[in-house]
């Protein structure tokens, strides 16, 4: 065990919190408690992983592992006896969460409301599961405590009286969210009731968290709030700017709800911070962002809910030994558990997919490593067998997911519901593997789906995309040519796939032809401007590249590849300061981007900033160690002023042995 940095850690999960909405509120002074943490800590984007589904993501946050390793692959799952479906449970998680590891090391954890935490695990500490706040929907006489809702079970006696009934939310409490509430005909419009329900759920989790925080000892406290995400699905269509298809009346009445949700979350944060001392490290994180501008997919927040989720969440970390008022760059949600382990002086599992955020600490920190926490013996508080769940609580949780649009109503056809749930789990698993370095493992899952649904060509296309990522261009072409007819090959999305395959094969001119055809057939096709820009860049058609990349920014928003492409254009034009800015923006959004670090190094070197350039090039080599041009740049910089002739020679030798780049 290493040195313990943090005495206590409070982790607050704000599902879907997004800096793009937070920053204007900070500028107005409307989120002072978050601002205080930012001033005394580090903050920045937290990149999500795909698919962007909350149960998968929050379990990745809690384990440092992707879904194929932790086992939570959706919102619902078949019951073990095969008689129906249920919300995904903690018994389906295949590996230890941070609170299990801390239990194993004699540290106490309190966990409140975490996604897929029911039934509660018997950890060293307390657990209030995510089934607790769904009881808000029931009248007081119908609220029942399931056998796994709390750990220890007697916690129910303390927390059941703290449930905030929606009927207790007064009109005065709703006014900050809906100043024009008097205009609403509540006999025809039930959105005020939905708002009251969301506030009651937030308040219930807050009350439970404060109770266990003050009444039960802890080293680690984790509290999950789903409110911002649910506010988004219910009210983001009414957020300014007004969307086409939203009436003037609705836009006027409900335009303040989202800002109100964030301000209320900040008020609750202030109340929570008043209960901790200066020795407590505070982490606020979200699993993804939420589209609020031109990228909103429709006027219904519950239609295609994943489509509303943006690729960057937020992170703010403050406490003893943490840098002050600094930006965090290149973090992903997979880095949270490795960072927590480092704070507690515990080693990182080599099988974890994230890294400890060592750059947040004021003093240099060395993170130890073990092969895996899964092989470490000792009581960790994990479930040892399937536990019966309360059918009423499970039914309410399932109903809530239906209302939010995350799953379809199972209805009376149980066999179909089980089949659909199994499909969702396999589909999400395949997408999760496709988003990782283990993309080859997605192939047999796609094959299963193809066998289950032979008439759905989408799965065959997804398998072809997997081959593109694997660099197997012939297999991609083979699948596309065998399984799609001539008309299907002309579909713009397939044109993009064929272009991507040619880009990956280095045939940039051919790729451009596919992209241009796709754009001609569907001018607003998502992703087409970025692809055009990158193809023009590879072909050194700089003016056209810049035009396409700027169109991508305007239409599609800023993706890391867009900013990196602009950096390349600016390097070619000798606009090195601008190139540095865009390269930094790229790696700030997505750290593992060797080309962006390389572009940063080139721009810095051309500006005469050799030390910083060397650091950028060395970072690029950690991700792409055989890139010839990177080695040549380093050799040149190390030879400059006889800085380090030995290193220069070593890079020249490596460059001579590789043809890469």
Features:
661 residues; alpha/beta; Alkaline Phosphatase, subunit A; nine-stranded mixed beta sheet; 15 strands; 48% helix; globular
What does this molecule look like?
- Helix content is 48%, strand content 10%.
- It has 661 residues and is of the alpha/beta class.
- A nine-stranded mixed sheet has the order 7-6-5-8-1-9-12-2-13, sandwiched between helices. Strands 3-4 form a two-stranded antiparallel sheet.
- Strand 3 and strand 4 form a beta hairpin.
- The longest helix has 25 residues, at 191-215.
- It starts with 7 loop residues before the first strand and ends with a helix.
Count of distinct structural domains:
3
Mean pLDDT: 91
The CATH architecture designation of the largest domain is: 3-Layer(aba) Sandwich
- What strand line-up does the widest sheet have? 7-6-5-8-1-9-12-2-13
The residue fraction in helices comes out at 40-55%
**Uncertain ranges:** 388-392
Radius of gyration from the alpha-carbon trace, in angstroms: 26 Å
Tally of extended strands?
Answer: 15
Oligomerization status of the protein chains:
single chain
N-C termini distance = 42 Å
Number of helices: 28
For the largest beta-sheet, the strand count, sense and barrel status come to: 9 strands, mixed
Shape: globular
What structural class do the secondary elements suggest? alpha/beta
> What name does the CATH topology of the largest domain carry?
Alkaline Phosphatase, subunit A
Query: What is the strand content?
Result: 5-15%
């Amino acid at each position: 065990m290493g040195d313990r940095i943090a005495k206590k850690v409070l982790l607050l999960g704000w599902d879907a919190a997004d800096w793009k909405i937070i920053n204007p509120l900070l500028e107005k002074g409307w989120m002072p408690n978050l601002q205080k943490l930012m001033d005394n800590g580090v903050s920045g984007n937290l990149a999500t992983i795909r698919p962007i589904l909350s149960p998968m993501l929050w379990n990745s946050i809690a384990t440092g592992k992707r879904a194929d390793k932790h086992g939570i692959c959706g919102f619902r799952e078949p019951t073990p006896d095969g008689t129906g479906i249920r919300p995904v449970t903690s018994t389906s998680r295949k590996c230890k969460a941070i609170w299990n590891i801390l239990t194993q090391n004699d540290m106490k954890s309190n966990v409140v409301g975490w996604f897929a935490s029911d039934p509660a695990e018997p950890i060293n500490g307390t657990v209030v599961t995510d089934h607790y706040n769904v009881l808000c929907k029931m009248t007081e006489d119908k609220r029942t405590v399931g056998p796994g809702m709390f750990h220890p079970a007697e916690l129910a006696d303390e927390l059941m009286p703290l449930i905030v009934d929606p009927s207790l939310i007064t009109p005065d409490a709703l006014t900050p969210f809906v100043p024009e509430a008097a205009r609403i005909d509540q006999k025809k419009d039930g959105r005020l009731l939905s708002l009251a329900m969301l506030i009651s759920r937030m308040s219930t989790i807050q009350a439970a968290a404060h109770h266990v925080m003050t009444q039960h000892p802890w080293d680690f406290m984790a509290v999950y709030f789903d409110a911002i995400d649910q506010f988004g699905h219910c009210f983001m269509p009414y957020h300014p700017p007004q969307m086409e298809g939203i009436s003037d009346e609705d836009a006027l009445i409900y335009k303040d709800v989202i800002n109100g949700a964030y301000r209320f979350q900040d008020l609750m944060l202030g109340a929570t911070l008043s209960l901790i001392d200066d020795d407590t490290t505070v982490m606020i994180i979200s699993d993804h962002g939420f589209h609020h501008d031109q990228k909103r997919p429709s006027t219904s927040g519950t239609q295609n809910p994943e489509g509303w989720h943006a690729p960057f969440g937020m992170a703010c970390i403050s406490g003893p030994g943490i840098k002050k008022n600094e930006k965090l760059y290149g973090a992903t949600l997979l880095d949270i558990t490795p960072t927590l382990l480092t704070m507690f002086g515990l080693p990182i599992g080599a099988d974890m997919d994230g890294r400890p955020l060592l750059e947040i600490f004021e003093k240099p920190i060395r993170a130890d490593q073990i092969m895996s926490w899964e092989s470490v013996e000792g009581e960790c508080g994990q479930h040892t067998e399937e536990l019966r769940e309360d059918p009423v609580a499970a039914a309410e949780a399932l109903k809530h997911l239906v209302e939010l649009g995350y799953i379809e109503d199972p209805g009376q056809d149980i066999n179909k519901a089980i089949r659909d749930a199994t499909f969702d789990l396999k589909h999400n698993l395949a997408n999760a593997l496709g988003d990782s370095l283990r993309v080859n493992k997605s192939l047999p899952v796609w094959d299963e789906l193809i066998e289950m649904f032979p008439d759905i060509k989408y799965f065959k296309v997804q398998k072809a995309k997997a081959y593109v990522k694997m660099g197997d261009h012939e297999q991609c072409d083979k699948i596309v040519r065998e399984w799609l007819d001539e008309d299907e090959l002309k579909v713009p999305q397939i044109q993009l796939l064929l272009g991507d395959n040619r880009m990956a094969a280095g045939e940039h001119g051919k790729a451009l032809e596919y992209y241009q055809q796709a754009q001609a057939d569907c001018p607003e096709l998502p992703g087409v401007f970025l692809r055009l820009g990158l193809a023009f860049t590879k072909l050194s058609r700089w003016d056209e590249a810049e035009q396409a990349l700027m169109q991508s920014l305007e239409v599609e928003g800023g993706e890391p590849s867009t900013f990196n492409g602009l950096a390349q254009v600016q390097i070619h034009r000798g606009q090195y300061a601008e190139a540095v800015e865009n390269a930094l923006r790229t790696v700030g959004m997505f750290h593992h981007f060797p080309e962006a670090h390389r572009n940063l190094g080139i721009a810095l070197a051309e500006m005469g900033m050799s030390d910083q350039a060397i650091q950028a090039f060395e970072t690029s080599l950690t991700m792409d160690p055989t890139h010839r041009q990177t080695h040549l740049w380093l050799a040149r910089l190390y030879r400059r002023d006889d800085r380090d002739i030995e290193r220069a020679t070593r890079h020249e030798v490596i460059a001579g042995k590789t043809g890469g780049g």
